[in-house]
Amino acid sequence: xxxxxxxxxxxxxxxxxxxxxxxxxxxxxxxxxxxxxxxxxxxxxxxxxxxxxxxxxxxxxxxxxxxxxxxxxxxxxxxxxxxxxxxxxxxxxxxxxxxxxxxxxxxxxxxxxxxxxxxxxxxxxxxxxxxxxxxxxxxxxxxxxxxxxxxxxxxxxxxxxxxxxxxxxxxxxxxxxxxxxxxxxxxxxxxxxxxxxxxxxxxxxxxxxxxxxxxxxxxxxxxxxxxxxxxxxxxxxxxxxxxxxxxxxxxxxxxxxxxxxxxxxxxxxxxxxxxxxxxxxxxxxxx
Length: 287
Hints:
Blueprint: H1 12-29, H2 39-42, H3 48-59, H4 64-90, H5 94-116, H6 124-150, H7 156-173, H8 177-200, E1 205-211, E2 225-228, E3 234-241, E4 246-253, E5 257-264, E6 270-277, E7 282-286
Antiparallel strand pairs: 1-4, 2-5, 3-4, 5-6, 6-7
Helix pairs in contact: 1-4, 3-4, 3-5, 3-7, 4-5, 6-7, 6-8, 7-8
């Protein structure tokens, strides 16, 4: 593992091949339907793996200037290639739609690569360079953990990747034991804080399931009771929606899964719907 962080002869040929492979892989992962809402597609959406790539380039560069140029060229090739691959296969227009935002991050790799190189100096201020990346990864970790709790085991690999990255970076970037263990303690504090925040503010999916409609026979008001057969998925309730000027069944879903939605009137008469809850959508059918 230590060899990854300073023991690789990362010449320009390897940088270009690395960039091409990273771009192609990411573009393919973004298109395969089975990767949707999984850790395998996260590389096309979030930063954690690209931070890892950037740190590997920085730690295997010969100078601050060399680090800045290699980071810039790597991202200049890999990032547009992600969109070009998708455009060629899906005949979309992602390169001109999305890359105009990502090119700003590509330009930012020049100063980040230059400053990041000084982590290799193994000084206390080297740790200060790493800390913003640890915090950024902590924010990603919190988001992935929330997704995993809602839609287990989706995004579990990304959650673990963030945790492992935050632990190994201070251990393998620094040689000075005091700096190494201080960085590790900071990482553990970030992980603990973000875990507490995530569990305190559970990720929920709030939506409207049904609207009272006399024409379709879906009639209910606040004299009715709505509930889920499996309350681990979340809760539902009937309320009056002023914008619709009618009653609705609102839901606060805490996790994905299948269960029955039951609408019950004051005489205990029930209408049952089967509902399949996913991360940001659901399917509902009357039984």
